[in-house]
Amino acid sequence: AQTVTQSQPEMSVQEAETVTLSCTYDTSENNYYLFWYKQPPSRQMILVIRQEAYKQQNATENRFSVNFQKAAKSFSLKISDSQLGDTAMYFCAFYGGATNKLIFGTGTLLAVQP
Amino acid sequence: GAVVSQHPSWVICKSGTSVKIECRSLDFQATTMFWYRQFPKQSLMLMATSNEGSKATYEQGVEKDKFLINHASLTLSTLTVTSAHPEDSSFYICSANSRRGSMNTEAFFGQGTRLTVV
User: Fold this and answer.
1) Taking CB atoms and an 8 Å cutoff, what residues of chain B touch A46?
2) Which of A7, A49, B8, B107 has a C-alpha 20 to 30 A away from that of A32?
3) Alpha carbon distance A104, A4 (integer Å)
4) CA distance A3 to chain B (A)
């Protein structure tokens, strides 16, 4: 069974600084997708970035980028130039195999300090 | 991106009554919808997978007779919490997968429903 682990329950970063959130996963699948979702205080789930496992190039979306290490089964999220609006819970998620389900990590609560 | 609308955003009901939560995909057809439950400061816990035109698939430990799911069309799934009790109070979130191309692997989430049973 697939599992997703986020080992940082809480993190804090100063405004304009860079922060990296960690995520590891376990799977026997070769083709799968990885996601980072943001859940701000409004609790609306927002897709931040996605990565297809067959792509070697790391995904980038403006200030958000990932470090995808397939062999190590690691998928970290880097937020550059952190903004107050980045304060949220961040969930790493895995999708793949026959289950047709998103598997979520336990989340990392990120606080951006002014 | 695609839009999923969930209604109501919040609801308060008396213990013993039933509450229906709707999840609609507004601009795409969703063959599959998912229902999650989320406790404060915790992750999303998948309750069931809702498939259009067929019975929902429930996760282990989720009472299917208590949490009734109906997916009658490609744009609407409903979750009914029957005979609600205070311990059912939680945040419920739906998501939908689009049928279109690469979006088959992207889930779009509703805004969630905060249920309080008094």
Assistant:
1) 109
2) A7
3) 6
4) 13
pLDDT in tens, B61-78: 999 999 999 988 889 999
> Read out DSSP for A10-26?
EEEEETT--EEE--EEE
Q: What is the 3-state secondary structure (H, E, C) of B21-86?
A: EEEEECCCCCCEEEEEEECCCCCEEEEEEEECCCCCEECCCCCCCCEEEEEEECCEEEEEECCCCH
pLDDT band of B99, cuts 50, 70, 90: low
A100–B contact, CB cutoff 8 A: yes
Distance between CA atoms of residues B37 and B45, nearest Å: 5
> With an 8 Å Cβ cutoff, are B111 and A95 in contact?
no
